[in-house]
């Protein structure tokens, strides 16, 4: 075994390790005093629950408690009922683990831990108890008590002793997201505005801005722990959820404004004075509001916010009427004005929310206002991958159980347990096999250490003080390493390898034979999990990226056909989540491909917003055949070639010309024109403009 060069541990790493070890020893002591049969389950639970941030410890503790109770309850019902039918028992247990894993993979928040744990807790309790089904209730009760003691001790120590709050992580990520968003805004409205970038630079810029979606998704998942924080951050939970949605909605608006400005530059052969004037005004407004986005207490009244928005709106609206422009240039200006109004409104909402969060952090009181949020229920879900993961777990558990039953191996239950644990634990990864193999490697390397503890040190222990002394060197050092992200996947397998072996043995009567059998079973179960996962479930990042792209296209097809009545907010949140998943998977690929996917994904985001706007506007303009246009869009997104047809080009131009002829400057009219301009500019950016307009647009 080769570890990276040793360097001194940081203060935070040492504090975390010391707190985890203290909680583990407390749980070990209390469980032994309570007369529980396997006290090392309590100790291992502490290390499973422990996290560097106290809020994450508390949330994980709640979910683990729920999962443990559900899993143990299922075991109490399944084992006695099917103990006389081994085949049915194996099928029932494997099916339970698989179903729980499937449900957990559909919930991508930390709550999924409860469902996953409900599955493999049943395996941990049930498989060792198949020979004694009459004792299953007592076994389940004692196991729950041991795990609950570990959870409570870990939560108490990490919450009371130098607790590390979530504030720094959450607020740092929030401000980074807002700073990057504001930088995008500043780039768009910098005066004098820069020339449109070249294709290659545009790809690099798009890719950099797509990384915003990664930050938004990370913030969304991290914010799940906010209600469990004991500081004033807990007051911000509602505002944080709403802020995530507002920033997610901003991205298609920002992309749309940038797209219209570049199209207007090409259409008019440069920047008109009125466009430059609006850019300078918005740039000045952004600079004036910059302190507010940093949480500085410069509270504006609702009237002042309204006056700011009204002044910017009046200035932007003049873009529609100034000068004698071509129909295409006029349509671009109408669309630009529509997007600018949205942009100003949404960015002001972000300013208000940031100020509310600053107030709650300072005073512990959240201002009273309605904070509607989409929530996490609309995040991307991959049913196919969830089914494959569940199938892999079912087959791996079944194979271990068949081997166990056929040869009558007493420790075969341990192999089935390990298969259930490792098929579940890493199922969220595109390719779980390297991580499972890593655990297999370090579990094997931890076997000599476990042997020393089981066969030499623990039999010589006569009091609790000696137990603490022999455990301290190993667990304190591994605890420090586990707090270091670069060494997490080395320290955890070693730590869990030793702690898991201790929890599987009666340490007072362990011998060489039982140790070899138990260790072999652990390694076999992990090996089977890795091989079955490799066969049924292992995929690459490129493969997952293609599935995400197909999911995006399916949503566009469904929206164009009107099958889903998508709200803009829901579409934006789900799309930004998918973009975040996509960016992390293409980041390591070729640079040119990265840029290409970035541009295509931003284009799909804008197209989705345009389709939603058309679906909402079609009932207001029955004279325009939006239905046929949307049907052609649906056909386009279904086709593998992704090449827009000439007929679609004509349909978009015809609809746009008809809308420009209508003397009806209502919000619905502006929205429809903006959507048609977006479709034309994104699908046919280089096609000649041929709008058949009878009169100038109002």
Question: What descriptive keywords fit this protein?
Answer:
698 residues, mainly alpha, 25 helices, 74% helix
Give the SSE map.
Blueprint: H1 11-33, H2 40-49, H3 54-82, H4 86-106, H5 112-126, H6 136-160, H7 167-189, H8 199-222, H9 237-268, H10 273-288, H11 290-293, H12 302-321, H13 327-363, H14 383-407, H15 412-425, H16 433-457, H17 464-482, H18 488-503, H19 512-536, H20 541-561, H21 568-586, H22 591-617, H23 626-638, H24 646-661, H25 667-683
Helix pairs in contact: 1-2, 1-6, 1-17, 2-6, 2-18, 3-4, 3-5, 3-6, 4-5, 4-14, 5-15, 7-8, 7-9, 7-10, 8-9, 8-21, 8-22, 9-13, 9-21, 9-22, 10-12, 12-13, 13-25, 14-15, 14-19, 15-19, 16-18, 16-19, 17-18, 20-21, 20-22, 20-23, 21-22, 22-25, 23-24, 24-25
Task: Give a short synopsis of this structure.
The protein is mainly alpha-helical and 698 residues long. It is built from 25 helices and no strands.
What does this structure look like?
With 698 residues, the protein is mainly α. It has 25 helices and no strands. It is elongated. It starts with 10 loop residues before the first helix and ends in a 15-residue tail after the last helix. Residues 193-201 have low confidence and may be disordered.
Order of helices and strands: HHHHHHHHHHHHHHHHHHHHHHHHH
Mean pLDDT: 82
Count of individual beta strands: 0
Q: What proportion of the residues form beta strands (DSSP E)?
A: under 5%
The number of helical runs is 25
